[in-house]
Give the backbone structure.
Amino acid sequence: MSNAVAALIEALASGSVTVVDLTQPLDENTPVIELPELFAASPGVSIELISKYDDKGPAWYWNTLTMGEHTGTHFDAPIHWITGKDTPNGTTDTISPSKLVTPAVVVDVSAETAADEDYLMTPQRIQEWESEHGQIPAGTWFLMRTDWSKRQGREAFLNARDDGPHSPGFSPAAVQFLIEKRDVLGVGVETVGTDAGQAGGFDPAFPCHTLMHGAGKLGLASLTNLDQLPPTGALIIAAPLKIVNGSGSPLRVLALVSS
């Protein structure tokens, strides 16, 4: 066993490194993104019993699960969006495993989003964070802490009104900055999707999807417990199911942090 792996095992055993679960529970009450009626909808979670220590299976319990790939805490692969459809190794079964265990930075804008539910991350806000914590390394997850995951109930979480959903996200300029100037691995958010609720009216529309996936970058949505992570130094384990030609997957996202 290498010294590095042995040291990590010891750190986990001693408690000097702890594991933080960044995943929302997944059940029939899990909110899913809502699209206009002219588009096909992604189904919510359906759990159907196969057997539970009964005549259908006396010694075992299991269920049939039905849901869309982008349900609950989930992973967005580049092929999820039309701009990323030709990305080499851009599906859940072909993405390099080295991209699934990766450092992260966490930018806390929870105060801003508490004051403005449509708050947008900007290049200026990113650079302000960097002036305190250092430049974001290439190949890093950029996690945007908004505390949106603390909202209770489907209506408050989706926050949809007559003019569409209202939730924080990224300005197009911030997305371009993270791709072109910082070469991040991707972005992670606490909202139902990586784009702001009103991003359909941006130029380009849905910049996190259009630009990020077009550049071969990844996404994580519906994260939680980002308030338990430090600004730098967390190691993220985010491994989607190895679905052949998969555009995404529900997953359990874990973070390793120094205690």
In short: The first helix runs from residue 3 to 14. The chain has a mean pLDDT of 97.
